[in-house]
Amino acid sequence: MYICRQVLLLFLILFIFIKAQAQPAKVNDQYKPVPKREFRGAWIATVENIDWPSAPGLSTDQQQKELTSMLDFLQQSGINAVMLQVRPAADAFFSKSIEPWSKWLTGKQGRAPEPFYDPLEFAINEAHKRGMELHAWFNPYRATNDNKFSALSPEHITRLKPEWFFTYGGIKLFNPGIPEVRDYIVKIFLDVVDNYDIDGVHMDDYFYPWPVAGQKINDANTFEQYGAGFDDIKDWRRNNVDLMVKNAERQYS
How is the chain classified by DSSP, letter by letter? Predict the structure, then answer.
């Protein structure tokens, strides 16, 4: 008798367990989890023609065909967001800019595409047609990517405001310790935010340059002028980066 009761109890427990597994758990509608949307992004680099265009100076038709083919491939691969590098070195891959056209687009800095078109606007429209987001990717501090300064456009900011820059590692970089520099960079961001239907803003290399053996960043005078409250120039530099990002966030919001 005792064994029969034990067997019956075991079957009862097993039945309750199976029944419970078969029934979906009751969840209050107020607390139902919201499915997370995946962000599957890809970066399209324009500096040095790494990704697009494949070479400087291609015709408008060639540039557009290359970009649409790239977007087709990304869409088929499951990508739903594209980060397009629109300002690699204080230059522009968009027409509504105070900075000159990029040499990596047309072969000469300051020269517009021929026939004329706006690459960023074109990229936005083509990405959105494919159900993908288009994010604008900026390099805030890099003003040149080589030491061929004589080839810079007369409208390039390094020519208009040479006091805003230091040369380090063979290239010109914005001096983030100057308040006007930070304001200028944020204005470039806002020109795009205000004039284009982008889905996001990305900042790349938004920090001081990596150390180069035997070289020193020439910003001691700037530290003397704007470094009040800081004993260490490195702490001051980090704060300059923070100020730029905070300013961008404040203006953007």
Answer: -HHHHHHHHHHHHHHHHHHHHHSPPP--GGGPPPPPPP--EEEE--GGGSSSSSSTT--HHHHHHHHHHHHHHHHHTT--EEEEEEESSS-BSSSS-SSPBPHHHHSSTTPPPSS---HHHHHHHHHHHTT-EEEEEE-SSB--SSS-GGGS-TTSHHHH-GGGEEEETTEEEE-TTSHHHHHHHHHHHHHHHHHS--SEEEE-S-SPPPP-TT---S-HHHHHHH-TT-S-HHHHHHHHHHHHHHHHHHHH-
